[in-house]
Amino acid sequence: xxxxxxxxxxxxxxxxxxxxxxxxxxxxxxxxxxxxxxxxxxxxxxxxxxxxxxxxxxxxxxxxxxxxxxxxxxxxxxxxxxxxxxxxxxxxxxxxxxxxxxxxxxxxxxxxxxxxxxxxxxxxxxxxxxxxxxxxxxxxxxxxxxxxxxxxxxxxxxxxxxxxxxxxxxxxxxxxxxxxxxxxxxxxxxxxxxxxxxxxxxxxxxxxxxxxxxxxxxxxxxxxxxxxxxxxxxxxxxxxxxxxxxxxxxxxxxxxxxxxxxxxxxxxxxxxxxxxxxxxxxxxxxxxxxxxxxxxxxxxxxxxxxxxxxxxxxxxxxxxxxxxxxxxxxxxxxxxxxx
Length: 339
Ligand code: KG4
Ligand code: ZN
Prior knowledge:
Layout: E1 4-9, E2 14-21, E3 24-32, H1 44-66, E4 75-81, H2 85-102, E5 106-110, H3 111-118, E6 130-135, E7 140-147, E8 150-156, H4 162-172, H5 180-187, H6 212-225, H7 232-261, E9 265-269, H8 276-283, E10 291-293, H9 305-317, E11 337-338
Parallel strand pairs: 1-4, 4-5, 6-9, 8-11, 9-10
Antiparallel strand pairs: 1-2, 2-3, 6-7, 7-8
The structure holds 5'-O-[(R)-(carboxyoxy)(hydroxy)phosphoryl]adenosine and zinc ion.
């Protein structure tokens, strides 16, 4: 059984196209919309327009790099949400149009679910059950992944996502958007014990997260101690201290869930999973017999390879469930988060 897949991701500010031969990634082209930096965050209408102008070029490049022709594709897939609706529509309609014109099936893929599987791309096969922490700019969700069709939400953020907290604190520190990678870089030269920033816990919800309090505490700390702004070593130290607090919360809750449910396999994915301190903290648990999977860094932030990989897993699990594109009426989600 072999299937060639064209996958598209356009849920936020990355336009991406990937071509797969079964689980193997033949190409994965990503175009990031850096122009949002000047607005300090993503402007949805500009994001959609940029997807419209880029998607065809990105897809042609994916075909060129994969070295295959359009008629060889047997299945198309696209991110169908969550995400910016205007942005999603560009990728969804492009992929559906391709499917209709080639008379092949189309599969809408849940963006979060695809992050959840991204840590297995190019590595070992997915083995259930596992605990999955999906931590990105828009989401911080802890799952119990039971099968290709069932993932239970154990906990989620009650306010800001972890990546959002990184981006907002980075802004306070005078850094560009997205600030997560910049904080990560500054923190490498900083003392993470310089200041203890508190991270809230949610009463009676041990697996839920909250990151809006830490954002406020960084704001007040800076106002009080560095009213003229932060520079030099203090900038590294504050970045490292903030990062330590967020990382501890993410790691502690994930490990608690794994211990409580007696599951030794853990997957950590999404944009924030690129964070070096987060990776180091999780890796330490391998000594205690945990298997920790991270995506390769290129698959941590939004990319189409993870969409194609998830479509492949669904096809492998149940080929008959993949329907001809002509039968589709709008986006639909077969995958549901059951709380
Ligand atoms: O998964 P992603 O590309 O988009 C969403 O689905 O949200 O994640 C983007 C988020 C941004 O908030 C960005 O600051 C954060 O991931 N991020 C990081 C790092 N690299 C990306 N946060 C901390 N450390 C990093 N190295
Ligand atoms: Zn994402």
